[in-house]
TrEMBL record:
The keyword Ribonucleoprotein does not apply. It comes from Microvirga thermotolerans. Residues 18-247 form the ABC transporter domain. Keywords: Amino-acid transport, ATP-binding, Nucleotide-binding, Transport. GO terms for molecular function: ATP binding; ATP hydrolysis activity; branched-chain amino acid transmembrane transporter activity. This is ATP-binding cassette domain-containing protein. InterPro entries: AAA+_ATPase (IPR003593), ABC_transporter-like_ATP-bd (IPR003439), ABC_transporter-like_CS (IPR017871), BCAA_Transport_ATP-bd_LivF (IPR052156), P-loop_NTPase (IPR027417). Belongs to the ABC transporter superfamily. One of its GO terms (biological process) is L-amino acid transport. CDD domains: ABC_TM1139_LivF_branched. The keyword Acetylation does not apply.
Length: 253
């Protein structure tokens, strides 16, 4: 059974920035999400974990409106967004970095960033901050993005998502297929984003990276949330890791 968030007094805990309640999603004839309940607190990094096919990517795409929820509620900053089109959800302050990254390979790094800033030129101070997070982008600023390595393309995809201030960043498997040195660079970049107060919902298959970054963790299985809590508690409980994920974090040290 999925864990439904317990009712608590608003005076005790702040309202989460994002809340899903009973969300079902169908893709054609397939019923993928079976009543998802989850919360993402503001200013924290929440990991979304689970075995392949658990429904993690579908959850992100449903939040973003790329796939329409069949039923249930998706509330962002107190506003119901389940029926909104994707452009309106983006304008509300949610950015999405898909596993495919979605960069323009024929355009330069600079042009990719410029296109991502829809409201005008990127603020110079923000641009300096972004290039501080991802120094490789500065080195390849005027090269076509298609010339970048896989890790550098991932960095560009994240930089595009934060070219303008966002309230929530959805990121799907940013370390997938990356060399260990690039994984370490990605971990450091997300630590810096956390330190800057960004709110992030992050799907990740590298459980070592997840343990290094997560404030909170949500685990899905077969289209349902089967566990939610503090990341440190999952890190400390190897039996729970085995039961929920089929392996322990130690296997990814």
């Amino acid at each position: 059974m999925a864990e439904t968030p317990a009712g608590t007094s608003a005076s005790t805990f702040p309202e989460p920035l994002l809340r899903l309640e009973g969300v079902h999603t169908h893709i054609g004839p397939y019923h993928i999400l079976h009543g998802v309940y989850l919360e993402v607190p503001a200013g924290e990094l929440t990991m979304l974990l689970g075995r392949n096919g658990a429904g993690k990517t579908t959850t992100l795409r449903t939040i973003m409106g790329l796939w329409q929820a069949s039923s249930g509620s998706i509330r962002f900053d107190g506003r119901e967004i389940a029926a909104l089109p994707t452009p309106d959800i983006a304008r509300a302050g949610i950015a999405y970095v898909p596993e495919s990254m979605g960069i323009f390979s024929d355009l330069t790094v600079r042009e990719n960033i410029v296109l991502a800033a829809r409201s005008g030129p990127v603020d110079p101070a923000r641009l300096d901050w972004m290039l501080g997070l991802f120094p490789a982008l500065k080195r390849f600023w005027n090269l076509p993005a298609g010339h970048l390595s896989g890790g550098q393309k991932q960095m560009l995809a994240i930089a595009r998502a934060i070219a303008e201030p966002r309230r929530l960043l959805l990121v799907d498997e940013p370390t997938k297929g990356l060399a260990p040195v690039m994984v370490r660079s990605m971990i450091e970049a997300f630590r810096a984003l956390k330190a800057a107060g960004e709110t992030i919902l992050l799907v990740e298959q590298n459980f070592h990276a997840a343990s290094q970054l997560g404030d909170n963790v949500i685990v899905m299985d077969d289209g349902l949330v089967v566990h939610s809590g503090a990341m440190r508690d999952l890190v400390a409980d190897k039996a729970l890791q085995q039961r929920l994920l089929g392996l322990s974090l130690d296997a990814h040290q």
